[in-house]
């Protein structure tokens, strides 16, 4: 059979745990520092404002558009290419004395002078109030997700593992946000959806490892917690690599082929998958060990092997 | 260890996948170009309309693919886009302006499939193009209207009961009713309490200032807001119908907002004008005792207010509203005998009886028609909401000649105004002004582009995953690939079956992602089987243990992902919700196909016999 990972024995993953944890901590602190200094490049969904996407019949002259826009009294417009040289995105900030209709009309007046056959592909206007609420709701959603997961994992596994998994998730979110902040990538609603998907994905990974840890604690009675964790990670390694691989493949396909409107989503996922895979091995398991997880903690779990009592219904 | 599925289990797998597949079929047929006919008020789409339409189209040589009458609307399917445009004009000429004729794209699902409940997935605006509005209802205005009505009620009630009050006004603390002594206050309080239990009365007497303050109770406040929202939704729905848009969405969001989605609409200016216009009319009696000159210098009698006539000049009207626009059932623009524009109005039964009582008591007195319009001032309030300006004008003052019933006319308008007022009144007045807080327009070409991009990503991602699984796991890989394909078909089938599910661009992303993540279940199982084999288990044991041990892992991992998707669904809006829906469906179907589906094939091939080697 074809094997990606063919190891005899157990890899001592935890040997590198300390330096890697320090690296993780630096990553998190660095992200927080970037977030604090540079902040997030909030997209239209959160700040409010107007976006007009245009398609020109020939490659667009951005500086001419900018000049024309300023003469049409549309101040503070950001003009950029969007996908191809013919596609242009114009962003207008929220103004106190504006009307979205007038603003869009002014933009259209300005650009039709340059190209009479320009097509208005998309117009989005979001009021500042709505944006603020969305940002609050988004933050709340992430928080609620983390709390629900904490409760579920505590209930199904053990609180030390739950803390480990939630710490790993927080790690993933912070680092992904940090990268968005560092590169000043636009953070819109689809990125938020991506971020929450990262939470789901990263947790998926963590749970697979934890499940094995729980099983091995019960099976390998003579091993130390470190050994159990190492064995569990080694055993689940091929699966982790394969699943990460297939998911990455589709996300890359989304990134390359999915079009500009879901670029942000794909970017968030792309980074999240890397960070998430890594954190489920190092952050989650290592923290659980540091919190003193051992065999006794696993004993009182009553539903130890779901497969056994599910046989009648499920395979 | 036999690894055999009982017959019923295999059958169940086949039936479930077949049902999913069956309901996915309508998506293969695409859409027909169609023309939709909806009746505006006063008309009806009936079987005779259907035959009229069919006949005119036939006489002009346009072939009708299929025409159907459903839910009071007519849908005529045509063979192509050019005929669709021609047909639309022919039909609107033939039917006249009592009907709204609109272009539409109707699913080309064959009738037998439709009869069995089959329909394709509904596409979101980002995939089909159109306008999305998020509108906010001005609750402050709704509450102000409510308390004004209460002031009028209190005044009438106290007068009827012969309880003397010194004054009633809408103050900062609520409705303030002043009395001359404590005794009358107590009497009034007891009386008013018995009359309206939705208000809370508090005695705010200070010294010789005998003041009773009334405020709406929490429950009543909530009820007023809820009614304002519901009434506005109904009104907006009526107005959207006037626009003649196929499959519009008018939906509440939260406590104060309304979503309006108009697929296929490109002329946003007109849509906006009709939707956010907040014109309404009210009928007031003219205060004949009032001195207009005094009122202009600020001495307006209590219970009256100074207004401007449209034609110029002040007029003092009583504050009490005789009748509001809410009761107007129909309104048509027309001309009077001097060919001056007018609007003929007919009221609903309740409005009719109110109006007939009012006019009976006031024969010989002048009554004014007040036109109220809310205009966006372009300024913002401190909280970022749009500041609206209320424009009130008296459009006509006429002496009531006789008792008026349910039908009467309003004069004093210009031609275009009469037309517009009639349209707005017909569509119903908004109880409180609404303003647009979010607007998204997506061109049809972008929608098409989004679908193509999504499909491309799906095809590429899926191809790589399928090839990898086949190479890496061989026989079992093929089975996983079957499961993956079945999974995708089932997601499409379930999406088509659920009435509220809408496919959006992020939804397609969710489907693509499902493809990548759905193999996880099979990878977990297969890696486990390989492990068992390496540990020296027999083939049958390895299969059994592999599926058994992987089950709890798969369940835990998927339940947690499902939870995050559920949270996304709960807090998300529009596109994010679309993504969450496909993700949730994908998780559910992939668990089924990867655990039960593949097991059934594995059992059928390798189970129950002596096998030396597995193709894994």
TrEMBL record, chain A:
InterPro entries: SecD/SecF_arch_bac (IPR022813), SecD/SecF_bac (IPR022645), SecD/SecF_CS (IPR022646), SecD_SecF_C (IPR048634), SecD_SecF_C_bact (IPR055344), SecF_bac (IPR005665)
GO molecular function, one term: protein-transporting ATPase activity
Membrane in keyword set: yes
GO biological process, one term: intracellular protein transmembrane transport
Highest rank taxon of the organism: Bacteria
Subcellular location: Cell inner membrane; Cell membrane
Keywords (A to Z) from UniProt: Cell inner membrane, Cell membrane, Membrane, Protein transport, Translocation, Transmembrane, Transmembrane helix, Transport
Membrane topology according to the record: Multi-pass membrane protein
Cellular component GO terms held in the UniProt record: plasma membrane
Pfam families xref list: Sec_GG, SecD_SecF_C
Transmembrane segments: 12-36, 138-155, 162-183, 189-210, 231-256, 262-289
Gene3D superfamilies: Multidrug efflux transporter AcrB transmembrane domain
Domain Protein export membrane protein SecD/SecF C-terminal: 108-291
Role this protein plays: Part of the Sec protein translocase complex. Interacts with the SecYEG preprotein conducting channel. SecDF uses the proton motive force (PMF) to complete protein translocation after the ATP-dependent function of SecA.
Subunit description: Forms a complex with SecD. Part of the essential Sec protein translocation apparatus which comprises SecA, SecYEG and auxiliary proteins SecDF-YajC and YidC.
Family: Belongs to the SecD/SecF family. SecF subfamily.
Record protein name field: Protein-export membrane protein SecF
Species this protein is from: Shewanella halifaxensis (strain HAW-EB4)
Gene encoding the protein: secF
TrEMBL record, chain B:
Domain SecD export protein N-terminal TM span(s) in chain numbering: 2-103
Domain Protein translocase subunit SecDF P1 span(s) in chain numbering: 229-288
Top-level taxon of the source organism: Bacteria
UniProt domain Protein export membrane protein SecD/SecF C-terminal: residue ranges: 436-596
Complex and partners: Forms a complex with SecF. Part of the essential Sec protein translocation apparatus which comprises SecA, SecYEG and auxiliary proteins SecDF-YajC and YidC.
Biological role stated in the UniProt entry: Part of the Sec protein translocase complex. Interacts with the SecYEG preprotein conducting channel. SecDF uses the proton motive force (PMF) to complete protein translocation after the ATP-dependent function of SecA.
Full protein name: Protein translocase subunit SecD
Source organism of the structure: Shewanella halifaxensis (strain HAW-EB4)
Species classification: Bacteria, Pseudomonadati, Pseudomonadota, Gammaproteobacteria, Alteromonadales
